Amino acid sequence: MELLIFNKDTWQEIVYTIRQNRMRSLMTVFGVFWGIFMLIILIGTGKGLQNGAYSSFESYATNSFFIWARNTTKPYKGFGIGKKFNFTNDDTRVLRTTVPQIKALGPRSRIRGETGFNNVVYKDKTATLTIYGDEPEIRDINLMEITKGRFINRLDIEQKRKVAVIGLESLPLLFTGGQDPIGRYIRISGVEFQVVGVFRLPNKNDDRYEENSKAVFLPLSSFQQTFNWGEIVGWYSVNVKSGYDAEQVKKKVRQILARRHHVAPNDIRAFGSWNMAAEFKKMSDLFTGIRFLIWFVGIFSLLAGIIGISNIMLIVVKERTGEIGIKRALGATPVSIMSQLIFETLILTSLPGYIGLVMGVGVLEIIDRILVFLRTDTQMFENPQVDFYAALATLAVLTLGGVIAGIIPAFRAVQMKPVDALRQ
Question: What is the mean predicted confidence (pLDDT) over 398-406?
Answer without folding.
Answer: 74
